[in-house]
Design a protein that fits this description.
Layout lengths: L3 E7 L5 E7 L2 H10 L17 E6 L19 E4 L2 E5 L3 H19 L5 E3 L2 E5 L2 E6 L9 H5 L3 E2 L5 E3 L5 E3 L21 E11 L6 H9 L5 H12 L3 E4 L2 H11 L3
Parallel strand pairs: 2-3, 8-12, 12-13
Antiparallel strand pairs: 1-2, 3-4, 4-5, 6-10, 7-8, 7-9, 10-11, 11-12
C-alpha cells in the first residue's frame, strides 16, 4: 500500500508529468521539500495514463531492528513501475538516486540529437561498463561493492563522439538543505567506456551480439562503437548473473 502520491512537471518546457508514489506521509514530506521547485500543484485527473511513474520507499519494513533475513525485507528503494532501480539500507541514498534518475529523464526529454543508450552503468575509478541485464539483478550488489564497483543510478546514458559515456546530473534547483542533505555535484559525469556486457539466454556469435545491440539505436555512431568493442574483445556475452559480475570486475580491473 502507498500512503499517497505527488506529481512533478519537468523538462525544459515543463511538459512532462512524472507521478511519484510514496510509502509514508514522512516520505511524502521529504519528497515535497526536495522537489519543491518542480511540483505540479494542479495535476490532471488522468494521472494513471502518464508515461513515467516512480515509487519511492524510504522506510524499511519492520523498522530498524536487525534481522538475519534482511535480504528478504522491503528496504528503502526506488522503483520504476515494477522494476527496482535502486535499493539501500539508507533512505538518503534513495533520495540521491531518485534525484539522479529524474535528472536523466529531465535532460533526455528535450534532447533528440544525442546518442542515448539505456544500458546500466557500473563504474570504478573513472571507467564504466554498460550492462544489459534487467533489475533487480545486481542492484546494490554486495560483491561488486566490495570490489569498488558501484552502479550509477541513471535513467539513460549518452555516448559522445569520442566514445566516452556521459551520465546526466541530478535534477537542478533542488532543496537539499530542506531535507538535511549536502548538495551533490551537479555536473555531468564523464567516464571512459571499458566495455559492454550482455546477459544472454543462449550463446551468440560476435556478429549476432553486434546485430542485437545495433537495435538499441539507429545512430551510425552506435554501430561503429559496438563493432569496435567487439574487435577489441570488450563486448561480452555471458550466460548467468555470476558471469555478468565477473565480466564487470574484469573489464574494470577490479
Amino acid at each position: 500500500m502507498w500512503a499517497g502520491s505527488l506529481v512533478l512537471r519537468i523538462g525544459n518546457d515543463r511538459d512532462l508529468l512524472v507521478r511519484v508514489q510514496f510509502d509514508t506521509d514522512t516520505t511524502g514530506v521529504r519528497l515535497r521539500a526536495l522537489f519543491e521547485s518542480w511540483l505540479e500543484l494542479t495535476p490532471p485527473d488522468d494521472l494513471d495514463s502518464q508515461p513515467v511513474s516512480f515509487s519511492v520507499r524510504l522506510e524499511s519494513a519492520g523498522g530498524d531492528t536487525p534481522r538475519r533475513d534482511t535480504h528478504l525485507r522491503a528496504v528503502p528503494q526506488l522503483r520504476h513501475g515494477s522494476k527496482v532501480i535502486a535499493r539501500s539500507r539508507h533512505a538518503d541514498d534513495i533520495l540521491r538516486a531518485f534525484a539522479l534518475v529524474i535528472g536523466g529523464v529531465h535532460a533526455g526529454v528535450d534532447d533528440k540529437e544525442s546518442l542515448w543508450i539505456g544500458l546500466r552503468p557500473f563504474a570504478k575509478d573513472g571507467s564504466v561498463v554498460l550492462v544489459g541485464v534487467d533489475t533487480p539483478a545486481l542492484v546494490n550488489d554486495r560483491l561488486l561493492g566490495l570490489a569498488g564497483v558501484n552502479e550509477i543510478a541513471a535513467w539513460d546514458c549518452i555516448i559522445d563522439a569520442s566514445g566516452m559515456v556521459l551520465v546526466p546530473p541530478v535534477l537542478p534547483n533542488l532543496s537539499w538543505s530542506g531535507v538535511g542533505l549536502e548538495a551533490p555535484d551537479e555536473g555531468w559525469q564523464r567516464l571512459n567506456l571499458a566495455g559492454i556486457v550482455m546477459l544472454e539466454d543462449q550463446a551468440q556469435t560476435v556478429a549476432e551480439r553486434v546485430s542485437y545491440l545495433a537495435t538499441q539505436s539507429t545512430d551510425s555512431r552506435w554501430f561503429r562503437l559496438i563493432a569496435d568493442l567487439a574487435e577489441r574483445a570488450t563486448l561480452r556475452g555471458v550466460p548467468d548473473r555470476t558471469a555478468v559480475r565477473d565480466a564487470i570486475r574484469e573489464l574494470l580491473g577490479a
